[in-house]
């Protein structure tokens, strides 16, 4: 009987059955990393994770491995050149001057780490609160009101990339994106302060604009929304499956 393919990505060091290249086979127990470790796909995120919401656990200072460990992709930082350019109708955008492979790490979303209270204060202070939300990302992947760790009970910290950030601050939204954000835990191993790592979810051509879904597909369908230009943010991504509004 053919066994069902399974991938349970757990904390680093735990063991699971692995059936992709680079892991064990025939019932062996193997440590599973989120990345391929051998061959032409080495360093690329495993295909099963590309459309998942599973967090990525990388090695850190508490591990016995070296800095060359294949499970330190995000830790090593961006390895591709990013270019900020002017789009036709959406302000600034970001592209890469070389092709990007499916599963390749692009960069992290960076910014000021602030409390939820400060984030709300900045939203209220902003003349366009919806525009402010474009730059705010809650570090809520592990938030759990029943957690024994008081830092994870919430409200979560937020990252504000409006004034202090890197090139990823200029990446635009698309309802049909080529990037996806993953929660990544590594060097400091603090879940309440995890990284926001951007990976390519398909092959991306040279100088193709980089995009990710700001609301991760959770926005209401356009048919369920009563258009109100004064209170809603219109989506300008132009994709065939555009949801018309961001929020």
Automatic annotation (TrEMBL):
Query: GO terms for biological process?
Result: methylation
Q: Which InterPro entries match?
A: H3K9_Histone-Lys_N-MTase, Post-SET_dom, SET_dom, SET_dom_sf
Ranges for domain SET come to: 80-215
Record localization:
Chromosome
Give the UniProt keywords, A-Z.
Answer: Chromosome, Metal-binding, Methyltransferase, S-adenosyl-L-methionine, Transferase, Zinc
Q: Where is the Post-SET domain?
A: 231-247
Q: What's this protein's name?
A: [histone H3]-lysine9 N-trimethyltransferase SUV39H
- Give the organism the record lists: Geosmithia morbida
């Amino acid at each position: 009987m053919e066994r069902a393919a399974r991938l349970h990505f757990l904390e680093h060091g735990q063991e699971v059955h692995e059936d992709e290249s680079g892991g064990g086979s025939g019932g062996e127990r193997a440590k599973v990393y989120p990345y391929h470790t051998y061959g032409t796909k080495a360093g690329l995120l495993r295909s099963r994770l590309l459309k998942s919401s599973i967090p990525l656990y990388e090695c850190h200072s508490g591990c016995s491995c070296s800095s060359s460990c294949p499970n330190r992709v995000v830790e090593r930082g961006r390895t591709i050149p990013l270019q900020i350019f002017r789009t036709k109708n959406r302000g600034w955008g970001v592209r890469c001057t070389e092709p990007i492979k499916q599963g390749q790490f692009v960069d992290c979303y960076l910014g000021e780490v602030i409390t939820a209270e400060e984030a709300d204060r900045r939203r209220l202070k902003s003349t366009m609160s919806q525009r402010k939300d474009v730059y705010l990302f809650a570090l809520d992947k592990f938030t759990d009101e029943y957690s024994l760790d008081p830092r994870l009970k919430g409200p979560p910290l937020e990252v504000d990339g409006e004034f202090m950030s890197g090139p990823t601050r200029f990446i635009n939204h698309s309802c049909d994106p080529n990037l996806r954000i993953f929660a990544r835990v590594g060097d400091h191993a603090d879940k309440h302060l995890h990284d926001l790592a951007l990976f390519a979810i398909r092959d991306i051509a040279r100088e193709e604009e980089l995009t990710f879904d700001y609301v991760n597909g959770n926005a209401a369908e356009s048919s369920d929304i009563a258009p109100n230009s004064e209170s809603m943010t219109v989506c300008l991504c132009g994709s065939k499956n555009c949801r018309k509004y961001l929020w």
